[in-house]
Amino acid sequence: MQDRPLVPESEIHAQREFMDRVRLLAHRPQSYHIVTLGCQMNERDSETIAGMLDAMGLCQESVREKADLILYNTCCVRENAENRALGNVIWLKELKKERPEILICVGGCMTQEEGMARRMKEMYPFIDLVFGTHNMYRLPEYLFRLLSERHPVIEVVNSDGSIAEGLPEKRASKYSAFINIMYGCNNFCSYCIVPYVRGRERSRDPEMVLEEAKRLLDAGVQEITLLGQNVNSYMGGGSAFAELLYRLDRLGIPRIRFMTSHPKDLSEELIAAYAEIKSLMPHLHLPVQSGNNEILRRMNRRYTRERYLELVEKLRKACPDIGLTTDIIVGFPGETEQQFLDTLSLVEEVRFDSAFTFIFSPRKGTRAAEMPDETPYALKSERIQLLIDRQQAISREILLEQVGKVETVLVESVSARDAQSVGGKTPRSHMVNFPGNAEWIGRFMPVEIVSAGKNTLRGKILEG
Ligand code: SAH
Ligand code: SF4
Ligand code: F3S
């Protein structure tokens, strides 16, 4: 049985009424600007927030300083993410001196940290509205209260979390869309704060997911990315996620991607899906975190180096051209030189297309934050640099291997620097730039790869 705690329809309806009431207020803000920090979950949440603000009659303003309402959707996965959010907020204090009428709102994961809401109230009294990840759907009600009572609204609830369906949305792209299939995380990796700020795992009804996908497809979306902290645990794990992929494929969506998968839950059915489903793109982000079994055990990752390598082998057997990317943490408490070298050797062995690498950042309330950690930061920095250098060399070799191939690229954008150049991703998720024009955005183009840069490819349209 999978728990699916839906926000009652009557509550969503009540929020819709608040949207109408805000819209009719004479003194409501006219424009908004959202700053999104963190991962794709936050990006998707920001699309919902933008949808709600639009429904309240506000217009999106691209210049932050000009907006009447500035909203920060925050992240706290590492200390620097949090510092960025707080640094920004302090800067807003100055702006508020110049324009006292602007409204400053803070939402997202950081607000859910223990004691954070109280701290914000005491230290940053110029913030008008604080809400958490679990009550984001009540933003219209909070904004109404703020505008009618004219004093700050700080509302963060501690909860296992629920699912709010049927909220408005404003999608960032017309051709490539995120679809949330699940929320929260039950894994409690010992270093990670996400389960504390995003609540327990809960999955959306597959019929709702399919309905959303169908609607997007009808509106011209060419690529969907399914989102969840651990999409493999969808509906409690097993083959449910792979089944969802088959059903989405049958709808006729040209390209399907997803993130993120946890190695411990990567099912045989999902591996088989890579061989069978044409619309499933040959790319998998599979965070490994470390190449050493003792560190993996202390991270509570529940797989071994050997198991991870076995999964990689099976995936490559099912889908020889699959591109693998990963996340790695360097300097976990007590990590020895040898244990770090095990990570380096795993990177050599797997040959990831790319890797996000992080120095361990202690997060209050997590188990790893309490573990003794004697390694000096400078040594951790040296280690991560070694890893980055090695990975960059491998990434470059893999990019060079793509030269000469012809790939179908979904054109996503015009280059900011050169209006005659467009960019998009290959099926394997490599970015390619090539001469073209804005009319091609949202179309699939046959592109011959002509050269490889540091992180991206260059190509040219295949004529005839
Ligand atoms: N749910 C995803 C990852 C979410 S966080 C998964 O399990 O794969 C994204 C990445 O941030 C993690 O994969 C991890 O590498 C990194 N990370 C999380 N907590 C961290 C911490 N305390 N210090 C350093 N890196 C961390
Ligand atoms: Fe964090 Fe682990 Fe959950 Fe990923 S799986 S969000 S790293 S606890
Ligand atoms: Fe950050 Fe929250 Fe995502 S902590 S990484 S924005 S789930």
UniProtKB/TrEMBL annotation:
Residues that hold [4Fe-4S] cluster 2 according to the record: C185, C189, C192
Classification via SMART domains? Elp3
Keyword Nucleotide-binding in record: no
Q: Radical SAM core domain: which residues? A: 171-397
Q: Which stretches make up the MTTase N-terminal domain? A: 30-148
Alphabetized PANTHER family for the sequence: CDK5 REGULATORY SUBUNIT-ASSOCIATED PROTEIN 1, MITOCHONDRIAL TRNA METHYLTHIOTRANSFERASE CDK5RAP1
Summarizing the function annotation, the protein's role is:
Catalyzes the methylthiolation of N6-(dimethylallyl)adenosine (i(6)A), leading to the formation of 2-methylthio-N6-(dimethylallyl)adenosine (ms(2)i(6)A) at position 37 in tRNAs that read codons beginning with uridine.
NCBIfam families on file = miaB-methiolase, MiaB/RimO family radical SAM methylthiotransferase
What is this protein's record name?
tRNA-2-methylthio-N(6)-dimethylallyladenosine synthase
Q: What's the source species' lineage?
A: Bacteria, Bacillati, Bacillota, Clostridia, Candidatus Pullichristensenella
Query: Which gene does this sequence derive from?
Result: miaB
